[in-house]
Design a protein that fits this description.
266 residues; alpha+beta; 434 Repressor (Amino-terminal Domain); 3 domains; three-stranded mixed sheet; 8 helices; 8 strands; 50% strand; Lambda_DNA-bd_dom_sf; transmembrane; DNA binding; transmembrane helix; DNA-binding
Length: 266
Amino acid sequence: MKFQEKLYQLRKERKLSQEDLAEKIGVTRQAVQKWESGASTPDMNNLLMISDYFGVTLDQLIRDEQNITLGDEEITTDIPKKDGIYVINNYHYRPSYEYISKRKIFGIPLVHVNIGNGIRVAKGIIAIGNLSIGLLSIGGISLGLFSIGGVALGLLALAGLGIGGIAAGGAALGYLAFGGFAFGTYAIGGIAVGTYCAGGIAVASKVAMGGVANGYYAIGDEVSGTVTITKSQLSGASLESIQNDILEKYPRIMRWFLHLLKYFLR
């Protein structure tokens, strides 16, 4: 008897639907359907969940030559937990969970959630997973138009490491970057490197503002560049005049960046 036949038999003997079993072990109904059809097989964590739930050994469950029954003794439907971690045969692990919405857009699920041990990929318009790919992507590693995660890549990326058009994080790389370490056309951070930069340490090819600033226009406490302006000079000079000088040389600079100069007067 093959695994898919054993699983079907065990489920029927318990009088469970595929959805009931999926809920008991923390997976989707589609996953159970694929297991019973032989289209896929569960990973080790899910095999352990199944064997514990039905009170059978893994050998009985996966070896084709061994038949399987529920037996006469009563089997508990509750899997023991300790601090939110399942304990099965003295093996501790966190359960996995997957949800795929029935609604799809261009064949892509509207919502796909896939979290748990190991590399679990979620692909959907809204994707949440260890590795997530979607329009709105949330995960340890996330790829999408709008991405949030430990590592995020997208038009808008928020993460420990963010890479995108607009990126914010511990380290950020983007056209507009905010972070402890910021790299971009417009970079604002503890250490900022790019074209127009503001930060504790700012290194820019054009305009740099910071405690330590290096750029064509360098404005700050310690400055080096072609045009250098210290805070003491800035406080006695015309802010509007400096802004106009920069704007004349770099007419495409975003105006909001020039407004940061007023903060150096404080």
